[in-house]
Structure prediction request, 130 residues.
Amino acid sequence: MERVVNFLKEAETYYLATVEGNQPRVRTFVTAHIFEGKLDIQTGKVKDISKQIHANPKVEICAFKNGEWLRVAGELVEDDRREARQSMLDAYPSLKNMYSAYDGNTEVFYFKNTTATFSAFTHKPEVVKF
Prediction:
């Protein structure tokens, strides 16, 4: 899992795909954080993505750096504890301009049933499950 988080952080931006009805939705993301042994991401409850995840928690991430790409497929589970929100905000201090652990909007999800696949044209795909 640490390799996955390191890749996402080094890529700096990744793309998170959800669905809304029968329409795929993809947007840029930057948060990737390990809290209590789980891969967490963060968003705001007022955003459409929050509603999409609650309606269908199966998502996929795609990131690219230095000729290698990473796909992370799994299910997101909300971690509604203040500690999870605060840990994410501490890991990404720039978010504190828009979010707080107590604002009723900050939302943290962790991945479960996850398959991460590292791929490149120069090597066979490597799969990590967690």
About this structure: The CA atoms of residues 99 and 106 lie 6 Å apart. The chain has one domain: 2-129. The longest strand covers residues 106-120.
